[in-house]
Amino acid sequence: MNQAWMIGPALIQLSWIYFGIALTISWVVLRWLTVYRHHPNAREEALNALLTGILVTVFSKIIFRFPILLEDPMTVLTYPSGWREALAGLAAAGVILYRAQRKAAIRELIPAAALLFLMTHAVYTVFSQPTGIGIHPAALYMLIASAGAWIIVRQKPNWTGSTIALWGLTMTAAAYVTAPPVYFVMIVPPPFFLSYAAAGLLTAVYLSARVRNAPSYSS
C-alpha cells in the first residue's frame, strides 16, 4: 500500500520516496558505469531534462485543475497528477533536450536521457511492485521492458529512438494487465504509453536525419 503524509499543503507519498531513491541510483549508474562518465555535458543536460519534466508534471496540475486553484489554492497541490500532467512533463523534457544541443551533441543527449529514465523506471518498479491482474506478474513485465531497453540503449545508442518506441508499446500492453495501470506515482490509462512510442518514433527519424553516419558510442 502506498503510504502518504501531509506536509503543509503538499501530500508526500511513499512512492515519491521510491522515485527519489530510483533516480539517485540511476544517476550513479549513468555517472560511473556508462560511457557518459566521459561526457559530463550530456550527462548534466539529461538530468536537467528529467528534473524539468518532473517539476512540470507536478506543478502543471495548477493549470489543468485551474477551477480548483481558484476555489481553494492551498489544496490544489494535494491532488495527484494524471496523464495530462505527465504528457506536459514529457514535452517539457523534450524541449530541454532540444535546446541543450548548444552544449552537447544530440547523439549523446538523447541516449543519456533514455538511460537515466529507463534505469529510474526499472529501479522504481522493483520498489513499488505494481499489481498484476490475475496471473500476470505486471512488475516483472515492466522490469524486463525497462531493463532490457536500458541494455539496448547502452550498447547501441543509435537505436535509442526505436528502443523507446518499442518500450512504449510494451508498456502499453503491460498496463492493460496492471491494476491500476501506473506511470511512476501516477495512475494513467494504458494508451498513455503510446505517447512514448510516438516520441521514440519521432526521435528515431530525427536522429537518422541528423546523425546517420555518426559513430556508435558504447563502453
Automatic annotation (TrEMBL):
Organism: Alkalicoccus luteus
Residue stretches spanning the membrane: 15-34, 46-70, 82-100, 109-127, 133-153, 165-186, 192-209
Entry keyword set: Membrane, Transmembrane, Transmembrane helix
Protein name: Uncharacterized protein
Record keyword Transmembrane helix present: yes
